[in-house]
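<tokenise_the_fold>
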Amino acid sequence: MTESELNLMNRSTKGITTYELLYVAGIVAISFSSIFIKWSQADVAVIAMYRLYLTNLLLLPFAWKYRRELFALTRKQWLMLGASGLMLGLHFLLWMASLRLTTVASSTVILTLEPVLVMLGSYWIYKTKANSAMLAGMGIAIIGSVMIGAGDFSLSGDALAGDILSFFGTVAVAAHMLIGKGLRDSVGAFPYNFWVFLFAATALAVYNVAVGNPFTGYSGQEWGLFLLLAIVPTLFGHYLFNWLLKYMNATAVSMSVLGEPVISSLLAWVLLKEALTGYQLVAGVFILSGVWLFIRRGQDRAELASKAASNGSAV
């Protein structure tokens, strides 16, 4: 870890670390995703594909700077990047499809299983343990998420199919996060994101060819939504969280999904004119409180690095 990274890690504003500020910014960014998807009329696989291809197009001007890192990868790293990209593409396909079949609340509340799956996977693969405060924060946040979605679950028809798609999309993104955690210890943020987004987009392109989805003929408004999805929730959301995987444990980063229904509900209230009840606001307080408690206790690597820096300066 470089000296500049340690300085960034130790920098804080009134007790709030830079990583925590970036984490909150990422939650706000990903919360726009469901809004843009609701506005679009294109097939969800096309939306996801262009979202990722356009993200890579925006990253392309910086590729020359990282040209050596982009190709200085082992066979195992290439395979893991491909697997991570495939899981991300599958997550986008399944979760975005669920939004067309069930309510945003129902689809999002199922996503709250992500940190649970990631925590179990982190313990099994990386031997990462969660302390009591982290578990309490997760529990509080999940209670709030269940409160938001409790009235929207359905056990029949399209809604049930949407819930099932959301669940398998959650499993896919948990796998993506766990693979990414292993890769980010040896692969830089830019090459990791660039290749993962490219592999995910290409997997979705193959799917679109297979099912016969058109690649052209979309309106200027649709292309604008594809671009907004690339910039806001992907670059300022997923890219940022993948970068944070090196400095926060995977479970802490995956907890971002619990903040999404709160911000998304507020955005839907403002932009889509959807109703927002006092009950939902109380649930939102639960979620945000739980997420905040968790991330304050979830930065194991950052804390260790900070202690190491302190010990080094004291010698």
